[in-house]
Amino acid sequence: MDINMIDLMDLEDLDMLETTRRPDRHRHRVNPFELSDEDFRYKYRFSKRFGEKIVGILREDLVHDPRGCPLSPEIQVVCALRNWARHEIQDDTADLHGVSQPVVSRTCKKVAEILSRKSREFIKMPTTLNEQQETIRKFRSIANFPTIIGAIDCFHIRVKKVNADGGQLYINRKGFSSVNVQVVCDADLKIMDIVTRWCGSVHDYRIFRECRLKQRFEAGAFSGILLGDSGYPCTPYLFTPLLNPTHHKKKDIIGAISVPGTQWKEVCLEILKQQKKTIVACAVLHNMAIDMREDVFSGERDSIEQYSSEPIVQRYIAPSIRGNIRRRQFIETHFQ
């Protein structure tokens, strides 16, 4: 047989092998914003208008990578939304958008980093007197509870077991590895402050004691007070429930304290994931969704139960003397 003919056959065989190993997945990539709004919401949980808003905010930062397979800002945003909002594994997101799993992983990481850098634009405590008064007014409209500016609590985001030195610090009282995240929300369930840097074994009160928000309250930066559970000490600026209320009005106070905390904790468990920057990024998306009147829950109550666990009971923290006096004066003034 002619040597040239053998070489030609070898080249054809190599072409067939190459085609088998590396199918061209990118030909199937379509613009998701060409979908109907109903189909877009089904795939990405949010409206197309919300997705377009995110793309507009991030477009300048989501530049194309000139190497390999460049992704448009639109594809990068919807990959992240699909992966986070639908609790979906990255392989499925990759198949849906005609990319590889490593590309989805890098894309989610990039989008999370950009959103977390912009977090101060969307996650912030009310600063002006008018902003604080409006926040207090909305809380009062819930249960006629005056001067409340925020509800505070911590919850645990499960993480993979940490095998490095110090990994035992991530194991919480329920026995699994987690990050203990502190959040303060307003009456609209918008997140006003978030702390994500603490291991699961750290007590809620230590997180608050060492955060900058506590220093701001002690410096008199806010005209209202926080509501928390018994994992915090009662202070002049952070009220906790009475352990044994004897008056029906006092029982109403306990109900008013517990409702906001429960509601926003479910929201956070619904949208938040394991990585710390991703937690902040999802908090940003959550606040933007509320501003744009998106349906934050959108029928996902079952998934909330799937990802949540029994609350981790914190040991009781005794109230300070000043806190007890201030709380008693508050009750006598507003609820007698």
Automatic annotation (TrEMBL):
Residues 152-244 form the DDE Tnp4 domain. One of its GO terms (molecular function) is nuclease activity. Keywords: Cytoplasm, Hydrolase, Metal-binding, Nuclease, Nucleus. Coiled coil: none annotated. This is Putative nuclease HARBI1. It comes from Parnassius mnemosyne. Its cofactor is a divalent metal cation. It is found in: Cytoplasm; Nucleus. GO terms for cellular component: cytoplasm; nucleus. Belongs to the HARBI1 family. Transposase-derived protein that may have nuclease activity. Does not have transposase activity. Its main location: cytoplasm.
